[in-house]
Specification:
By secondary structure, the chain is mainly β. The protein is built from two helices and seven strands, in the order E-E-E-E-E-H-E-E-H. 13% of the residues lie in helices and 33% in strands.
C-alpha cells in the first residue's frame, strides 16, 4: 500500500475563482466588471468602495476588477479578480482598441512566468468570435451575484433578487 495511488493526479481546479497558473490561462469574460479596492484582515479579503484602507490607513489597498469568466480549460464559470495593474492595463488597452473593443467578444490568454516578486504576466487576445454555446448557456443559467463580494459573501450562493 502506498500513500497515494501510482496514477494519482492532483485536481487542477481552484474552486469558483480563476487563478493564473504557470504557463497560459485562457478565459472568456462573460459579465461586466465591478471595480473596488481589496485589502486583507486576518487572512480574509476586505473589499471597499473607498481607496483609503479602513484596516490600516498607512497601507494602500489594491484596486481590483472582478467579473464572471468562462474557464476555457475546465469548461465552467468562475470569478476572476484582477489585482495586477499590468493585467488591468493590458485588458483596458484591448477594450479601448477599435479592432478589439469589449473583451466579452473574444477569449483572453494570460501567460504567467516566474514566481513571487519575479512573476511576469503577458496578456494576449484570442480570436474575435462568439462565446461557445456551452459557455453562453452556462452563463445564462447561472445565478452569480458579483456584488456579494463587497459584503464578503459567496457570489455563487448569495441571496439577492438581482443576478448577473
Amino acid at each position: 500500500m502506498t500513500f497515494l495511488p501510482d496514477n494519482y493526479e492532483q485536481p487542477a481546479s481552484w474552486g469558483n475563482y480563476l487563478k493564473f497558473k504557470k504557463g497560459t490561462t485562457r478565459f472568456r469574460i462573460m459579465s461586466d466588471s465591478i471595480t473596488w479596492y481589496l485589502d486583507w484582515k486576518d487572512n480574509k479579503p476586505v473589499r471597499t468602495k473607498e481607496k483609503q484602507s479602513a484596516i490600516d490607513p498607512e497601507r494602500k489597498p489594491k484596486h481590483f476588477w472582478a467579473f464572471v469568466v468562462w474557464d476555457c480549460d475546465e469548461k465552467r464559470l468562475k470569478i476572476l479578480e484582477v489585482t495586477q495593474k499590468g493585467i488591468q492595463d493590458a485588458i483596458l488597452a484591448l477594450y479601448k482598441d477599435q479592432d478589439r473593443g469589449d473583451p466579452k467578444g473574444y477569449d483572453i490568454k494570460v501567460t504567467k512566468e516566474g514566481e513571487g516578486m519575479d512573476t511576469k504576466y503577458a496578456v494576449a487576445p484570442w480570436k474575435l468570435e462568439l462565446a461557445s454555446d456551452e459557455a453562453t448557456k452556462a452563463y445564462k443559467d447561472a445565478s452569480i451575484y458579483l456584488e456579494a463580494l463587497y459584503d464578503g459573501e459567496d457570489p455563487f450562493t448569495a441571496d439577492t433578487p438581482f443576478w448577473f
